[in-house]
């Protein structure tokens, strides 16, 4: 993805997070990205193309940042995997809060938009496939099911944290860690283990 397209899509994610789907216009994205008027419409002729680009950018960010962090931890066993997922959850609710809110805006819109839903499902399937491969390496008996379960739990926890808290990173990590430890420890074949940095 080119630098200018990346700037535009990161601006679009900011607009989604701050203004929701209704606020996602080419003009609003130009302003959020600090670009001259008309820049967004030059790269994304329609709103549908812009929305599809947002989904692609979310997937790109996940594959660049979150997936490698989990993959690097899996060799250390359930404890380190729990810690990696806890760190990802904290980041999703704090430093990457805008990206997470943008994802939820798109997800809600997809309930009524079959084309957007298909785009999101494709992106989610890509992440779950990587997660399944990771968990297969950790010994999971049902890697696909395990990946779907872990993703659902993490997503639900992050959503709850955004709505109800806790918001402070250390308190959030302490709240996330036990639930993630339980789900990882309960996966057949992965086994149980205490995080090496558990508090």
What this model shows, in words?
With 199 residues, the protein is mainly α. The chain has a domain at 55-185: Orthogonal Bundle (Tetracycline Repressor, domain 2), CATH 1.10.357.10. The protein has nine helices and no strands. Helix 1 packs across helix 2, helix 1 packs across helix 6 (97-110) and helix 4 packs antiparallel against helix 5. The longest helix is centred in the first third of the chain and has 28 residues, at 47-74. The protein is elongated, with a radius of gyration of 18 Å. The N and C termini lie far apart (41 Å). Mean pLDDT is 91; it is low at 192-199.
Brief characterization of the structure:
This protein has 199 residues and is mostly helical. The protein is 76% helix and 0% strand.
Defining traits:
single chain; 199 residues; mainly alpha; Tetracycline Repressor, domain 2; 9 helices; 76% helix; 0% strand; disordered C terminus
């Amino acid at each position: 993805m080119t630098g200018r397209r990346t700037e535009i899509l990161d601006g679009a994610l900011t607009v989604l997070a701050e203004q929701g789907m209704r606020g996602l216009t080419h003009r609003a994205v130009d302003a959020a990205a600090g670009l001259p008027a008309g820049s967004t419409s030059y790269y994304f002729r329609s709103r549908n193309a812009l929305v599809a680009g947002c989904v692609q950018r979310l997937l790109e960010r996940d594959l660049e940042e979150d997936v490698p962090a989990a993959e690097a931890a899996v060799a250390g066993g359930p404890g380190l995997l729990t810690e990696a997922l806890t760190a990802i959850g904290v980041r999703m609710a704090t430093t990457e809060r805008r990206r997470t809110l943008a994802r939820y805006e798109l997800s809600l819109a997809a309930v009524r938009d079959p084309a957007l839903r298909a785009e999101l499902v494709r992106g989610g399937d890509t992440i779950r496939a990587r997660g399944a491969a990771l968990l297969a390496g950790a010994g999971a008996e049902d890697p696909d099911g395990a990946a779907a379960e872990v993703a659902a739990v993490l997503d639900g926890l992050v959503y709850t944290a955004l709505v109800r808290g806790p918001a402070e990173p250390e308190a959030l990590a302490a709240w996330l860690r036990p639930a993630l430890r339980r789900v990882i420890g309960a996966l057949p074949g992965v086994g149980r283990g205490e995080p090496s940095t558990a508090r």
